[in-house]
Amino acid sequence: MINIVLFGPPGSGKGTQAENLISKFNLKQISTGDLFRFNMKNDTPLGILAKSYIDKGELVPDKVTTDMLIDELKKPCDCDGYIFDGYPRTSFQTECLDKIVKEELKSEISICLSLIVEDRILVERLINRGKSSGRKDDSEVSIITNRISEYYKKTAEVAELYKEQGKYVEINGVGEIAEISQKLFAEVEKIK
Ligand code: AMP
């Protein structure tokens, strides 16, 4: 089983690259952001709660997010592993994920692939995405910069934890999509 944590600030191309990794290695993507958006669209109690944080560019509380992730992992899946996109974002979540993967999948996190993109390009990409998707958290520069700074404040520690485990690999996230995918594939092949 290959379990990948796909890591990177908002707008770094995690979603696009996850799609390519999924088809290459028969993985299932679990994106906590997508799960929240699904719940918000359907006005579920979880969605209403999450919206109050997401619209401000803040992180949803760890417990709420982690319970949602566990529910998702309990669903049967005919796949060879998972891509975690958007989770973990804190050191608490990193420890939770280790435990959850062990308990639910009898497996472990194989690698953390981190896409590196400079802030100026992230803001540009997110504003463009907001124009076509209508996502509120992608439409205002102040909300975007808040999300990016939340990422650096809270999630830098996640990278440290994976570095300590020798599982952290940085990939340049600027360039042709296919070229970036090839670099990611090569890293996964190394640990297969
Ligand atoms: P994303 O699509 O991954 O950028 O997530 C969109 C928003 O959902 C984030 O800005 C957070 O408000 C919330 N979110 C997604 N994943 C998490 C997480 N692991 N922990 C807390 N909040 C999250």
TrEMBL record:
Biological process (GO), any one: AMP salvage
One Pfam family of this chain: ADK
Broad class of enzyme this protein falls into: transferase
Superkingdom as given in the UniProt entry: Bacteria
Subunit structure comment from the entry: Monomer.
Region annotated NMP, chain positions: 31-60
UniProt keywords, alphabetically: ATP-binding, Cytoplasm, Kinase, Nucleotide biosynthesis, Nucleotide-binding, Transferase
UniProt function note: Catalyzes the reversible transfer of the terminal phosphate group between ATP and AMP. Plays an important role in cellular energy homeostasis and in adenine nucleotide metabolism.
Pathway entry: Purine metabolism; AMP biosynthesis via salvage pathway; AMP from ADP: step 1/1
Documented EC number(s): 2.7.4.3
Principal localisation: cytoplasm
GO CC, alphabetical: cytoplasm
InterPro entries: Adenylat/UMP-CMP_kin (IPR000850), Adenylat_kinase_CS (IPR033690), P-loop_NTPase (IPR027417)
Family designation: Belongs to the adenylate kinase family.
Domain statement: Consists of three domains, a large central CORE domain and two small peripheral domains, NMPbind and LID, which undergo movements during catalysis. The LID domain closes over the site of phosphoryl transfer upon ATP binding. Assembling and dissambling the active center during each catalytic cycle provides an effective means to prevent ATP hydrolysis.
Subcellular location: Cytoplasm
GO MF entries: AMP kinase activity; ATP binding
Catalytic activity as recorded in UniProt: AMP + ATP = 2 ADP
Binding-site list for ATP: G11, S12, G13, K14, G15, T16, R129, G175
Coiled coil: none
Stated name of the protein: Adenylate kinase
